[in-house]
């Protein structure tokens, strides 16, 4: 950003190899997070027809993983107030995917402190689920480690999504990655919960994560938010920096400003296994319908502001829920927060 | 993009200096193109109140140049079919800005082949205009050179905007830059007319332009389109590569998918002369009203498709005008084009 001008030779800056604009890296994995992150804006009330169509779309589009939702504690959350993908029971997944004799793997998210993982996550051999995504903040890493080992012990692939890292100290992050590196986790995720990260900062974060990943034999993933219209840009910055696991959602559906759009990501990726056309069809037939029915998500000025200020989007989400449109007043409110 | 994974040390890739994330480059110039590029979606029918408020907003926001519109030939275009900013007569500008005794400079765009520049552009000493932006395709560079020298001879600052370079051969582009480098032009503009360029490609283009700029003592500018939600990302990529002149429009208003959003750009820039709050106020009070009144622009699936396919957006604009929403069918149509 805004570098003092100097010649490239002086800065030693080199561009990424041009071959990589044409060729592809076979290790890339695309993760569809539509039901899980999208569920945050409609309380997980997706029809079975929608979920089935999404599953078939992911198959046709060459998506590698489909995240069905959260494994939320039914002790903590009232099943009457949420659709079934808040809980993602194995039998509900099974009702959609059957034996899932496909290349598409099934994921769920397990939040630290909000998942009865010891009972609700059964052995992989008996479950349709392949990947457990453990979501944690930096201050709950030890609890995340327990969940990681539980899931790994039951035979699952495991990722760890460290949320809200845009206001994390680099030293703390490195300690966390060192701890996680020594666990059974397979993938370490960069999560820009606030949509506050610029591509240059993403490059630095990817570097920190990649160093840990190389040291401990892990993979790195990225989950971006679109507060500043950078979710796609940050995702392709990361993939250019060696990050393999890429989260996306159809039509960017997700909390607040939403995520990296699947239809942008699949258009970009060069591996011929990925197809953008099924994604366009699904957005056309299903996602635009959700929007027309009044489900609200996506880039808007209130999310720009919280992203810019590196704040949790909760105030912007509240602004949206209240159907406020006094954006300038909202800016004065959020600037006053510390 | 999708590099074969290797360690940073092996690729020699270096990141931009971290200091540049905090500090700023004083040479950066922000150009508000709202009336000109935005005028393409409402036939330049802006009220005087809107234009006056925009002018005052630019002053408060620290914007460096305000582009009022085109200097279109009144022989070629019917004044009854367009608002006044299609023609940007000096007296109309004067009615808004008076003597413009401010730091905000005034720009207009002059299209090769569509501007009676010899008569319609008078000496700068007698005009409120400071900067003539000559817009050309690669195949009309000699005509652009004549316009550049005419404007420079009349005392103006001059930029040359080479449009639609995403489907240009690199060798041709270099020849064009060599020709333009030897003219009186001040700024050479990278213009991603199709919204087809990814940030890594922007870095390469910036490198090509910067080499010419250093050789000939010129500045480089960037004008991005948002077909793939990359207008802002490409603009901040470019500024990180030494590009100084940055086009933006309020609420991204511009042809098709629109441009880099001013409110995103001002939030990003670190020079304390720039203020994002007036931009937020203006979007809140004026741009959202334009949208509510039915003026249509901005990112949508049809623009993603033409951007992805590196096509002129005219088919997508037509799709929008016809209020079509059969996106999947549109994709089949544009894929069939060569």
Q: What brief labels describe this structure?
A:
338 residues, alpha/beta, 41% helix, homodimer
Strand elements of chain A, count: 8
In oligomeric terms, what are we looking at? homodimer
Q: Largest sheet of chain A at a glance?
A: 8 strands, parallel, barrel
Characterize the overall form of chain A: globular
Most residues in contact: chain pair = A-B, 71 and 71 residues
Q: What's the overall average pLDDT of chain A, rounded? A: 94
Q: Helix fraction of chain A?
A: 40-55%
Q: In angstroms, what is the radius of gyration of chain A?
A: 19 Å
Distance between the termini of chain A: 25 Å
Order of helices and strands of chain A: HEHHEHEHEHEHEHEHEHHHHH
Q: What class, by secondary structure content of chain A?
A: alpha/beta
If helices are DSSP runs of H or I spanning 4 or more residues, what is the number of helices of chain A? 14
User: Biggest sheet of chain A, strands in spatial order?
Assistant: 1-2-3-4-5-6-7-8
Beta-strand residue fraction of chain A: 5-15%
């Amino acid at each position: 950003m805004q570098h003092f001008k100097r010649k490239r030779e002086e800065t030693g800056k080199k561009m990424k190899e041009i071959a990589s604009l044409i060729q592809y890296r076979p290790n890339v994995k695309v993760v569809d997070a539509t039901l899980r992150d999208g569920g945050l804006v409609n309380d997980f009330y997706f029809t079975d027809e929608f979920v089935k169509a999404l599953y078939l779309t992911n198959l046709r589009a060459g998506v590698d993983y489909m995240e069905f939702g959260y494994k939320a504690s039914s002790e903590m959350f009232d099943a009457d107030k949420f659709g079934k993908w808040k809980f993602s029971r194995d039998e509900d997944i099974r009702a959609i995917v059957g034996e899932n004799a496909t290349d598409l793997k099934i994921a769920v998210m397990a939040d630290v402190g909000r998942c009865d993982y010891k009972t609700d996550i059964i052995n992989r051999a008996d479950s349709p689920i392949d990947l457990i995504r453990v979501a944690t903040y930096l201050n709950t890493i030890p609890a995340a480690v327990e969940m990681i080992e539980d899931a790994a012990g039951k035979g699952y692939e495991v990722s760890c999504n460290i949320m809200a890292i845009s206001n994390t100290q680099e030293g703390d992050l490195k300690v966390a990655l060192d701890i996680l590196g020594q666990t059974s986790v397979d993938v370490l995720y960069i999560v820009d919960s606030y949509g506050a990260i610029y591509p240059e900062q993403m490059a630095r974060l990817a570097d920190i994560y990649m160093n840990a990943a190389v040291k401990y034999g892990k993979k790195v993933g990225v989950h971006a938010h679109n507060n500043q219209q950078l979710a796609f840009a940050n995702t392709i910055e990361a993939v250019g920096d060696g990050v393999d696991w890429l989260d996306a959602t159809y039509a960017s559906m997700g909390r607040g400003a939403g995520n990296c759009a699947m239809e942008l990501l699949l258009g970009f990726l060069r591996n011929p296994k990925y197809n953008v056309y099924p994604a366009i069809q699904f957005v056309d037939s299903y996602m635009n319908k959700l929007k027309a029915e009044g489900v609200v998500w996506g880039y808007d000025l209130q999310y720009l502001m919280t992203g810019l200020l590196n704040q949790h989007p909760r105030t912007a989400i509240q602004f949206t829920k209240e159907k406020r449109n006094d954006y300038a007043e909202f800016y004065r409110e959020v600037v006053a927060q510390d």
